[in-house]
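Thread: Newbie trying to understand structure tokens

Hi all, I'm a second-year student working on a class project, and my supervisor (Dr. K.) asked me to get a predicted structure for one chain before our next meeting. I've only ever worked with sequences, so writing a 3D structure as a token string is new to me. If someone could post the tokens and maybe explain what I'm looking at, I'd be very grateful. Here's the chain:
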Amino acid sequence: MGYLFTSESVSEGHPDKVSDQISDAILDNFLAYDANSKVAVETLVTTGQVVLAGEVHSNTYVDVQHVAREVINKIGYTKSEYMFDGNSCGVLSAIHEQSGDIRQGVEREDKYEQGAGDQGMMFGYASTETDNYMPLSLEVSHLLVYEMAEVRREGKEMTYLRPDSKSQVTIEYGDDNKPKLINTIVVSTQHDDFDDDEPMLAKIKEDVINILVPRVKALLPANVQEMFTDDIIYHVNPTGKFVIGGPHGDT
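---
Reply by user tm_fold:
Sure, no problem. This is what the structure looks like when written as tokens:
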């Protein structure tokens, strides 16, 4: 019996991903100058504001405010009209020294007898559907937001694009549990307010189908390209215009 399988992906400009990238960049900077740094940092982003909090034990200093602004600007939040931009947003740091109680479980005299400051459980599996062992629906979802960011940076087509976006892809599987075709593609992207709602949304949908999807298709192997048929169901900005986005629209 056949079935449908769906995966989603968010762009670099999605608020959750913005926070992740700032936290990752702070960690990378500490490790670059002190490989033994212990870093546990969380980031919150909202309208015009970034809050950094957590614990660090390190022999180096990192200008976390500068790092956060660099990440935000690199993503593309560089205009005040977004109500969140790297040059003018506030950056509050509440990062402090790591607890000695936690550190005693992490740092040991014998480096091969290291402990952990926390624990967690997770599970997953590898898939043979793609070269990177990810499910095909997730691979296509990722490529949609990656390519949309590339189109935005190139600045030649779809010049109305803003950084925040999300994609969702549904794959139809056959009785043999192998992907047969792409059933549905959903793309929600932040954009400039460049026209009345109806023609504006029609233009965005047309560009997603005729510009973005062919670029994504070209990046995939031939057997997957064959799954892009004329019967794909497209939902592009299905809730309407998406001008207010990023950390201003979703903390």
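A couple of things are worth pointing out once you decode it. Residues 173 and 179 are 4 Å apart (CA to CA). The chain has a mean pLDDT of 95. Feel free to ask follow-ups in this thread.
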